[in-house]
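New to this. Help decode both lines:
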Amino acid sequence: MIQVELASLTVDSRGAPVVILRPIEDDRDHARLLPIFIGVQEATAIMLAAEGTTAARPMSYDLMVRLLEALGGSVVGIAVTRLEGGTFYAEITLETPSGRQWIDARPSDSIALAMRVGAPMFVAKAVLDEAAVTEEEASGERATPASPPSEAEQESQIAAFTDFLDKVDPEDFKG
């Protein structure tokens, strides 16, 4: 397993939210990015956690944290474990009074939960080898070495996601 961090949260050209994970230890000249398409609600939850913001009322992931705490459990970490037929699979590792438990979950839900509790995130090496792209490939560049996004690029990504959120119908978040 390779430890990763949230590199960015963006939208593709069709407006679909994409979470981008980056290995923490990757060589910056050969950095890989793992894009995973996610739902709007999950993107919102991840963005709020990344910003350290909370919703006026608890979201599902806040409720999960409260339930775990009430039952004496905690999130040890999450892992994107495999990729089958274009679908990513993940698991959440919990420490509970009855011992360690592994829960099957979607990567988006796992990331949203991990971001709330500060748990480490991992991706199986085989998944990175199969689905990751280099920063050059992600940006459409070829021969230039990868470099961290500039402040202007980061602001552009944030602006694109903010614009996406401004256009989301509040009805999408009911239920």
Remarks:
- The longest strand covers residues 74-84.
- The first helix runs from residue 40 to 51.
- The chain has one domain: 2-71+108-141+149-173.
